[in-house]
Amino acid sequence: VSASAQSTEPMSGYVLFNEGAHGSSLSPESSAAVTLEMQTQVAAFIASGGRVLPITNTTVVE
């Protein structure tokens, strides 16, 4: 996924990041921007029941 996605049904997908590290979802050590983007995406995806995946910082997403 390289742009925000929304569906009436639960969806699946993946986002490729162009920086950061394996632990970036929990630690901002290698890239604070990636950590924020990952955490935002996960929170929205879970809160929406898998129906929304926002991409808010396109500079860190391929």
Q: Secondary-structure element sequence? A: EHE
What share of the residues does DSSP label as strand, in percent? 5-15%
How would you sum up the major sheet?
2 strands, antiparallel
Unreliable residue runs: none
N→C terminal distance:
9 Å
Oligomer: single chain
Mean pLDDT equals 97
Helical run tally: 1
- Overall structural domain count: 1
Overall 3D form? globular
Number of strands: 2
In spatial order, strands of the major sheet run 1-2
Tell me briefly what this model is.
By secondary structure, the chain is of the alpha+beta class. The chain contains one helix and two strands, in the order βαβ.
Provide tags for this entry.
alpha+beta; 2 strands; two-stranded antiparallel sheet; single chain; 62 residues
